[in-house]
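Run log // design_07
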């Protein structure tokens, strides 16, 4: 909104500069002074188009307007001397008053353009702006945690809301516009399952927007090639904004890491938070189905960890206590292997089963 207002004011200001030149009877253009208005408006529209289409690293609505204005004025003042030299060089046949009029016009146009670009640059790169002193550079990385870039899979998954609500992530959350478009397409899918997943993602996004613990913004990324996939656009945007990518997509996480992007995989995060089961520890679980090998029983802990128990096939449907023998970490999660022992609890289960 702020940038739109700024662009509108800039175009009006450029038009005012052209009108000032039109009404100036001392113009060297004579009866063709209307060209000044056309030139001024063309320069203004071209400057706005360049600003909109140019790639930007980060969009921020909190502006350093005064700093940008100061830089623009100083730059305009420095360029005014160049304008005087150019007008004097190419307007030798003009009268002195005409040269002054043309110099004033060009100087005002240059001043508007430099001021506009300075303010726009600071508005869009406020958090990434670098104050450079010889041999010393202060960067945004020293000012806090990197923002978090959300993809479609993590919104559909839904666990990101509980994690943010718990205060694990305090950084700013960024949802690109093309991710919203993809999420909307999934929600409008004719497939019932995909439609439900898309709607759940939209509901999670709405909860994040309303959560006081979440600093969520929607990023309007610049126009890019339409044939580039969403995953590649996410990786490119993460590199441009120096953000960490949050996802549940294993393949996307690996490709992003190869591209030098910092990735937070929700599945790996949840797995790492599961309590460790040490060999010899006694654990209680309900066996829900037989295992692949003879005599094995399979159960699941409350956190979803898969448990494979030797000599547990005969206790399917019962809650038993077993001894942990080993734990294995896989790409799909953690697996616990155990064995039915001679613990009193195990004997009670076998006795109950025999009765």
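design_07 sequence
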């Amino acid at each position: 909104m702020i940038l739109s207002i700024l662009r509108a004011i800039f175009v009006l200001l450029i038009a005012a500069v052209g009108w000032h030149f039109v009404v100036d009877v001392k113009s060297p253009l004579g009866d063709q002074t209307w060209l000044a208005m056309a030139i001024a408006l063309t320069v203004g529209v071209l400057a706005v188009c360049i600003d909109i289409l140019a790639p930007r690293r980060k969009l921020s609505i909190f502006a350093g307007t005064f700093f940008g204005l100061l830089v623009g004025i100083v730059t305009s003042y420095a360029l005014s001397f160049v304008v005087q030299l150019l007008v004097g060089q190419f307007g030798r046949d003009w009268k002195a008053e005409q040269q002054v009029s043309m110099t004033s016009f060009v100087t005002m146009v240059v001043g508007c353009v430099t001021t506009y670009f300075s303010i726009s640059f600071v508005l869009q790169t406020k958090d990434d702006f670098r104050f450079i002193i010889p041999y010393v550079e202060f960067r945004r990385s020293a000012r806090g945690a990197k923002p978090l870039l959300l993809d479609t899979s993590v919104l559909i998954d839904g666990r990101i809301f509980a994690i943010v609500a718990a205060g694990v992530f305090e950084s700013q959350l960024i949802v690109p516009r093309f991710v919203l478009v993809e999420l909307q397409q999934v929600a409008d899918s004719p497939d019932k399952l995909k439609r439900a997943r898309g709607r759940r993602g939209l509901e999670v996004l709405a909860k994040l927007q309303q959560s006081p613990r979440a600093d969520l913004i929607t990023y309007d990324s610049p126009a890019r090639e339409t044939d580039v996939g969403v995953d590649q656009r996410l990786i490119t945007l993460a590199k441009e904004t120096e953000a960490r990518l949050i996802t549940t997509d294993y393949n996307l996480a690996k490709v992003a890491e190869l591209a030098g992007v910092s990735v937070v995989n929700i599945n790996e995060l949840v797995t790492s938070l599961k309590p460790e089961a040490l060999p010899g520890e006694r654990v209680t679980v309900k066996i829900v189905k037989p295992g692949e090998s003879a005599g094995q029983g399979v159960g699941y802990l409350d956190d979803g960890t898969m448990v494979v128990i030797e000599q547990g096939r005969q206790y399917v449907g019962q809650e038993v206590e077993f001894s942990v023998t080993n734990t294995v970490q896989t790409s799909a999660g953690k697996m616990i292997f155990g064995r039915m022992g001679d613990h009193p609890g195990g004997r009670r289960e076998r006795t109950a089963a025999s009765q």
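Residues 59 and 124 are 5 Å apart (CA to CA).
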